[in-house]
Amino acid sequence: MSQAPAKEENPLVNIIINVLLPTIILSKLSKEGDAVYQLGPTLAMVVALALPFGYGIWHWVKHKKLNIFSCVGLGAILLTGLITIFLWKSPEAKPHVALIFGLKEAIQPLILGSLFLITRRSSNPLFRTFIYNDSIFDVKRIEQSVAEKQRISEYDGLIWKCTLLFFGSFCISAVLNLGLSFYFLGDLEATNPDWRTVYNEQVGRITFWGFLVIGAPLMIVAFYILYTMVNGLEKLTGLDRETLLVPR
């Protein structure tokens, strides 16, 4: 008997555990004080890093492959934590907090977006993981039809075009992240005695509004890429949309 297909992981759970929860921990528990939840910046970073690190180890043991969300989460939290410690220990850097934090926020999506280009010719391209995969498209039938019609170069061109569009969406995210950092941290007074508290609160707001201001445009771009992919495959293969897509 054939084995049942492995259950697909929920991307939302991945994002919550590897990105959202660690960021909230870092922004809310980094205060220094006597309360049990006031861990300080160093210990808060350790706790925040434990989530994506632990999830990444579990994913590796179960699936024998890296979890890209865990890698991104580890990098994001480590950068945020190190920048927070640097800002708190270096008074001369405080006037530039919006630029420093904004560059960090912009670099993260650029790195992730670049991985779509770097892994394009690998055995497991990220574009196929996120968009063009067997849970959405009937890839085997599509590639068989493309081969029969001898349109492989056009097929590769379509995938490359959509990969570039996906990379472009991360570039948009980088610009919006930088803008959010200047909006929320641009007027932070370096001489404010509650500077650390205000900083933590603003980082939390950047995280919250980032999901709204950045998430919505990225969803629109993702749907446009999916629309472009489906229409391009219809023209290349002659198959209709119901045949191209896996029944839900």
TrEMBL record:
The chain crosses the membrane at residues 12-30, 42-61, 68-88, 100-118, 158-186, 206-227. It comes from the Bacteria. Keywords: Membrane, Transmembrane, Transmembrane helix. The keyword Transmembrane helix applies. This is VC0807 family protein. It comes from Rubritalea spongiae.
